[in-house]
Amino acid sequence: MQQSLSATILDAIRLLLSGDPALWDIIGISFQVSLSALFIALVPAMVLGFILAFYDFFGRRLLIALSNTMLSVPAVVIGLTFYLLLSRQGPLGDLRLLFTQSAMIIGQIALCFPLLVAMSHTAFQAVDRRAWETAITIGISPLGALYLMMREARFALLAAVLASFGRIIAEVGASMMLGGNILHYTRNIPTAIALETSKGEFAQGIALGIVLLLLAFTLNILLHLFQGKGALS
C-alpha cells in the first residue's frame, strides 16, 4: 500500500534530523563541488566584468553579447558540450575527467561564469567612473583601485555571488552527464532527487528537496538584503 504524502514528508524530516550518513554525504558532495566551482570562477569573472565596465576596446561589445547569450544556454547543453570534449573520443579524453567531481566543477564553472560576468559588469557600471580615475591619478596601483571599486559595488557583487551559487547547486543536467551520479563520489542533491524519485523512494528525495528549498529561501532573503543595502549606499 502506497505511503501517504504526510507520512512520506515526516520520514523525510526524520532523515534530515537523524543525521543519516548517506543523505548528508550527498549534501556534502553537492556543496563541495558547487563552492569549488564558484571560488574558481569568482575572481576571473569579476575582473572581466570590471574590464567590460571601465575599458573600451575592440571586441568589448562582442564579449558582452557572448556573456549575455551564455546566460540562456540550458545546463544540459553545457553538459553535452563538455561530455563530448571529455569523452574517450573527445579532444580532452586523455585527461580522464569524465564522471569525476572535476568534470562536474568544470561544467558548473561554465554555468556560473557568465552570470558572474554579467552581474559584476552591471554592478561596476553603477559605480562612478570618476572614483576610478581619481584613484589612478593620486597614485593608487591598479589593483588597489580595483579593490576600492569592489568595495563601492560590494552589495551588488555579493548578490552576484549568491545568485550564481543558487544556479549551480540546483542544476541537474550538467551534473548528471558529467558526473554520472556515482554514489559517494559524484551524486549530488539534484541528481539524487531525480534518481530516488524514479525509483519511487520519495522520502530521501523530499528530504533533499527541503534542503534546496531552505537554501533557495536563504539566498533570496540575503539577495533582498544586499540589494536593499546597495540601493541605499
Written description of the protein model:
The chain has a single domain (5-232), classed as Orthogonal Bundle (MetI-like fold). The chain is built from eleven helices and no strands. The chain has helices spanning 5-18, 21-54, 60-70, 75-86, 101-125, 129-137, 142-152, 154-169, 173-179, 189-199, 202-232. With 233 residues, it is an all-alpha fold.
Summarize the topology.
Layout: H1 5-18, H2 21-54, H3 60-70, H4 75-86, H5 101-125, H6 129-137, H7 142-152, H8 154-169, H9 173-179, H10 189-199, H11 202-232
Poorly predicted runs are none
- Count of domain modules: 1
Query: What is the distance, rounded to the nearest whole angstrom, between the alpha carbons of the first and last residues?
Result: 59 Å
Indicate the mean pLDDT.
89
Pick out its properties.
233 residues; mainly alpha; MetI-like fold; 11 helices; 78% helix
Give a quick summary of the entry:
This protein has 233 residues and is mainly alpha-helical. The protein contains 11 helices and no strands. The protein has a single domain (5-232), classed as MetI-like fold (Orthogonal Bundle).
